[in-house]
Every structure is written in C-alpha cells, then in structure tokens.
Amino acid sequence: MTDVSAGVEYKINVDGNSFLLDSKKYNLLVSILETGSLTAAAKEINVSYRTALNYIDKIESTLDVKVVSTTKGGKGGGGGTSLTEEGYSILKECKKINAIMELHKDVNEIEATIVDINDAKGVMTIKNDEFEINAPLNRNYKIGDEILALISYDNIFLMLEPQTSSIRNILKGQIVEMRLEGEIIRVKINVGGVTLCSDITVSAEKELSLNIGKEVYIGFKAMSVATLKL
C-alpha cells in the first residue's frame, strides 16, 4: 500500500460539497482498492472495523455520494468491498496531488488570489500581498479564488538587473541566506516579505558575486508555476 504520512489532508469537492480527507481515510480507500475487503483494509491501517465503517459513512454523508460498494457472499462466502466509480475518482484526485508534490519536493509555496484571467494568452494573474505573478490558466478557476502557487527551486533564475526575455515573472528581492548543498548553492531571497529559494551552481554564484544582503532580481517563466486551489 502507498502509505501517506499523518497530517496530510486533501480537500475533495463533489457537486458543491466539500470534505477534508485525512491520511487515515485516504489510506483506508487505498487499502480497500488493493484488498477488496473492508475488514482487511481496517486491519491494515490499524483501526477497528466499526471505525472504518464510520470513516466511510462520514465521507459518503458529507459528499452525498457512495464511495464503496459491498457485496455479500453465498454459502461459500466470497463477499467483499470495492470502490465505486466516485470512490475511485476521489482516490485518483488524491494520487494526482501526491504526484505533483513528489515532483516538486524542493518547491516554493506562495498563497495568492487570482485577480485576472486572460483567455487569449492562456494565463492568469495571481496576487500575493506584495507582488503579482503570472501562471498558466486553469479554466476551472475563477477570479477571487484562493490558490497555492508552487515553483521549483531550480526554476528560479537570479539576475543582478531585470532582463527582457521570455521570463514573464521578474521580482526584486534581497538575499537572506546562502547554503552549499552538495554541488549546488541554495539561495534564499526575501521578496516582499515572502522567502523564496533558488538553486544555482557554484560557478553562477561566483559569476554574480552573490552575498548575504545583496539585492537581486529573481525570474521564472509562467509555465514553471503549478497551482492548487485552496
């Protein structure tokens, strides 16, 4: 079973109903899919059968959908529990979020609000308290939505002066920390009260003559910004 650590929560939306699926309930659904048995699934995640039933009831009553289907066996047994189409869809959405987070382990997180949508260019503008950045348009979002923007450390470029290029997002900041990590240098930059990280090579650090306290510009392409709706 692909176990998810405690503390992880997924916000699930089904036809206007929302539910925060925690790690226990997520792992229960995964185990039901793998074992075909609610009893075995409960045992695998170390909860009682009654608790597992309560988990399922809570999900189904809140979202107003059936997430599992139970069949009874005949004289020889053979009954079991499986995920419904809705239950599998919920699990698939959670796994997609897991995949995004795994891909972006070293990632900057920025909480922001969508303030503009440009359908023609396929971008949306999101605003933090101190700055605005561009991200790829997600047509499921609308102006006013609160989102989490994710930008990998290695997708952020450092510049001494702003440059005209294909980079749509250029922000001014100040270096607050530099640390050697293996063969790269992790640079932390304060940008309008938000600390963002950039991974650069040792040769790039020397070429730019970087040091703590130095003012720099950071840049990243709109397409390097992944988003999740909060």
UniProtKB/TrEMBL annotation:
Sequence ranges assigned to domain Mop in this UniProt record: 164-229
Keywords from the UniProt entry: Molybdenum
Stored Pfam families: HTH_1, TOBE
Record-linked PANTHER family: DNA-BINDING TRANSCRIPTIONAL DUAL REGULATOR MODE, TRANSCRIPTIONAL REGULATOR MODE
Topological category with respect to the lipid bilayer: Peripheral membrane protein
Protein name (Swiss-Prot/TrEMBL): LysR family transcriptional regulator
InterPro entries: LysR_HTH_N, Mo/tungstate-bd_C_term_dom, Molybdate_resp_trans_reg, Mop_domain, Transp-assoc_OB_typ1, WH-like_DNA-bd_sf, WH_DNA-bd_sf
Naturally occurring in which organism (per UniProt): Methanobrevibacter thaueri
